[in-house]
């Protein structure tokens, strides 16, 4: 249940936080109480308050990742009460506020649970697996001209809008955390489609999707569950339609590569 956001009365909360010193060590939940909280502070500011108290007591602060604190980068990714990024739709963890909860609530905070995202410490996970997928083909390496040439290339508005929708993906990994199979297909679908929808992405279109999908599989991400938890948890509301678009591209690319003639020596 989400609290009434009209209240400005300070509240008290208990955070049940996952503590784990490193990847090889077993972790556990530890409760931390915080009182006299301004309901307008963000969830990350709440963690700052608890860490200030821990440091004053000479205890180890809670490790969590963050950067922009504006819902742009996705670094702040947390699972809050069982939901990636928290109780609201279309926002990141850093945009979740204390007013989203009721006075006296116990809030469970944990890292993303997925084998390709090992826990580094406490709430921080290693999501470099996404970087490896991007490095496998999420780019354009052929010459496409200067900026003025791009402006002279006609692109249907529908394609341009879809490419912008796909490009909104911030690579936070919420889709993986939400999926029972730890699938990364929404992320890969968005990154593949972003370039496949544009003229500049056509020369490497087939090799891009083949490389990125094979890298995704090699890194241990699971298959799509077809239940669309991924798009429901996405802070940028990336549509699961991009998964279907990627699957079509992958099937076509696989077929073409099987019958493609080898270059003459």
UniProtKB/TrEMBL annotation:
GO molecular function annotation: 2 iron, 2 sulfur cluster binding; electron transfer activity
Domain 4Fe-4S ferredoxin-type: 160-190
GO biological process: aerobic respiration; respiratory electron transport chain
Domain 2Fe-2S ferredoxin-type: 25-112
Family per similarity comment: Belongs to the succinate dehydrogenase/fumarate reductase iron-sulfur protein family.
PANTHER family associated with the record: SUCCINATE DEHYDROGENASE (PTHR11921:SF41), SUCCINATE DEHYDROGENASE IRON-SULFUR PROTEIN (PTHR11921)
Name of the protein: Succinate dehydrogenase/fumarate reductase iron-sulfur subunit
């Amino acid at each position: 249940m989400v609290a009434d956001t009209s209240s400005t009365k300070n509240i008290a909360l208990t955070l049940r936080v996952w503590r784990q010193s490193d990847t090889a060590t077993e972790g556990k939940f530890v409760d931390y109480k915080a009182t006299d909280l301004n309901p307008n502070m963000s969830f990350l500011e709440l963690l700052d308050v608890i860490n200030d108290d821990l440091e004053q007591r000479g205890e180890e602060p809670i490790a969590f990742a963050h950067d922009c604190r504006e819902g742009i980068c996705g670094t702040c990714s947390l699972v809050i009460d069982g939901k990636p990024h928290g109780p609201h739709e279309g926002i990141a963890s850093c945009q979740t506020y204390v007013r989203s909860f009721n006075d006296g609530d116990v809030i469970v905070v944990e890292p993303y649970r997925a084998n390709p995202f090992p826990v580094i410490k406490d709430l921080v996970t290693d999501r470099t697996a996404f970087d490896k997928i991007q490095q496998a083909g999420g780019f354009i390496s052929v010459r496409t001209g200067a900026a003025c040439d791009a402006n002279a290339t006609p692109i249907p508005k529908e394609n341009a809008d879809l490419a912008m929708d796909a490009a909104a993906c911030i690579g936070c990994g919420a889709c993986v955390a939400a999926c029972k199979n730890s699938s990364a297909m929404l992320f890969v679908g968005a990154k593949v489609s972003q370039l496949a929808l544009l003229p500049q992405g056509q020369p490497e279109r087939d090799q891009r999707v083949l490389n990125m999908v094979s890298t995704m599989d090699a890194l241990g991400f699971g298959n799509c569950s077809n239940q669309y938890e991924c798009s429901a948890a996405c802070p940028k509301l990336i549509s699961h339609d991009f998964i279907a678009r990627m699957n079509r591209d992958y099937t076509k690319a696989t077929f073409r590569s099987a019958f493609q003639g080898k270059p003459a020596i």
